[in-house]
Amino acid sequence: MAEFCKQFNDASSDLPYEANTPLTVRLNAMSDRTFNFEIRSPPTSWMLMRCAGIKSKLDKGEGGAKSPNSSRPVGYVTPEQVYEIAKIKQGDDGRWHLPLGGVARSVVGTAKSMGILVREYEDIPEFQQSSSSSSSSGNNDKEEASAA
Predict the structure, then answer these.
(1) What are the CB-based long-range contacts (under 8 Å, 24+) for 43-46?
(2) Which of 78, 88, 143, 144 is the residue whose CA sits 20 to 30 A from 134?
(3) Over 50: is that where the pLDDT of 63 sits?
(4) How far is CA 87 from the centre of its chain?
(5) pLDDT tens digits, 107-145
(6) Of all helices (H) and strands (E), which one includes residue 116?
(7) What is the DSSP letter of 1?
(8) How far is CA 7 from CA 10, 11, 29, 63, in A?
């Protein structure tokens, strides 16, 4: 076990992920107590939660939806974020031959099962509320200026 940890830390130090990013590992243990392993990209669900601003259970958060429902989503991601996640996942062994569109559809399916919806940035309710409140304050200034 100690030898695996040492080799894993050496191999993972060169990866482009920030510290404390969970990584998927495929470990093959042989009967003679030797092993080999392959480090893969972070789980799709973890990347989706990061993009949607949802704290994972690893970060002492709630995680995804307990019962996914499109009428009450737990978060939103943009198509651009789905595309970036799909590019990362396509780099894993066993997915290099899959078209990017197919991997992206798989990411969208994972998001849907977690209660995360894919929307354009302008269509996300939080964005609409913040832009409408800033535009409404601008309208009040114009009304005050015309009244004066």
Answers:
(1) 44/85, 44/89, 44/106, 44/107, 44/110, 45/110, 45/114, 46/21, 46/22
(2) 78
(3) yes
(4) 12
(5) 999 999 999 999 887 777 765 555 444 444 444 444 444
(6) strand 116-118
(7) -
(8) 5, 6, 14, 30
